[in-house]
Amino acid sequence: MQNIYDNHDFFKEYISLRKSGITYNDFVEQPAIKSVMPNFKDRSVLDLGCGAGYFAKYCISEGASTVTGVDISKNMINLAKLENNHERIEYICKPIEELDFQKTFDLIISSLAIHYIEDYSNLIVKIKSLLKENGEFIFSTEHPIVTARNEANNWVKDVDGEKLHWAVDNYQEEGKREHNWYVEGVIIYHRTVSTLMNTLIKNGLRIEKIIEPQSNSIGLQKMPKLINEKRRPSFIVIKSSIS
Questions:
Q1: How many CB atoms sit inside 10 A of residue 134's CB?
Q2: pTM of whole model > 0.85?
Q3: pLDDT per residue over 159-176, tens digit each?
Q4: Residue-by-residue DSSP string for 130-152
Q5: CA 191 vs CA 43, 117, 122, 202: distances in Å
């Protein structure tokens, strides 16, 4: 179980990026995942990979009765308790893979954490068992088009450095990918779109909506390179519910 966010150098760079407010999360992923969220009023929420607690605090602000945030990183949990604490939020420092709650939830969410999980099938079995009747599971992950190749930089460019197209390879070869992001050896797991969908269906979850988001208008103004989301999506958002 990788805990890259407790690496001092990685954590420092990552938090600096997130606090800048000029990120793919701010203008692409977060608007997309929030757009498919149900009415939070009086609903219990489990946030998997809660990070510094920004989404947990958002759920409370939207009327959630309780939020339980789980993250493997002590750095993230400590920051969440410092900056996004609330009497109706409980933060737990624990790997997602070791979920063992004795209670169930109305809504389980996960923002850009599932691509760090090796055993997706086992995770979905656990998630199904933690959902109440009519419960929903909504998550975002890196898009399989992005994670497929073994190399991290997939843009094919001309002699002047202009992007010609995005290269997709090794798509059906699911499994570990290792990249450099602030530090060496950041591990994610590639799985196909069909695996993402069929594993949910196999475990009794109904696909409600899928989004392959582009940037919002503010993002295009502040980060012009986000225009490339039209050429290939960085993320996929999946909304599912107990069928």
A1: 8
A2: yes
A3: 999 999 999 999 999 999
A4: TEEEEEEEEEEEE-HHHHSSSSS
A5: 31, 11, 14, 16
79-90 exposure pattern, b = at least 16 Cβ within 10 A, e = fewer: bbbeebebeebe
User: Which pair of tokens denotes residue 228?
Assistant: 């490339």
Residue 1's pLDDT is 80
Q: What is the CATH number of the domain that holds 195?
A: 3.40.50.150
Q: How many CA atoms lie within 13 A of 137 on its CB side?
A: 28
Tally the domains of the chain. 1
CA–CA gap between residue 69 and residue 48 (Å, rounded): 6
Q: Cα dist. 118→95, 114, 170, 194, 200 in Å? A: 12, 8, 18, 16, 16
Distant-in-sequence, close-in-space partners of 122: CB < 8 Å, separation ≥ 6: 97
Separation of alpha carbons 22 and 25, rounded Å: 8
Selection from 69, 75, 77 nearest residue 99 by Cα: 69
Phi-psi label, residue 188: left if phi above 0, alpha if psi -120 to 50, beta otherwise:
beta
* Strand bridging mode 205-211 / 235-242: antiparallel
Amino acid 119: pLDDT: 97
Domain assignment of residue 27, yes or no: yes
pLDDT reported for residue 243 = 75
Ranges of residues in the chain whose predicted pLDDT is under 50: none
Provide the pLDDT for residue 238: 98
Phi, psi of 122 (to 5 degrees): -65, -35
Residue 166 lies in a domain: no
Give the structural domain span for 62.
Answer: 4-143+189-219+235-242
Mean of the per-residue pLDDT values of the chain: 95
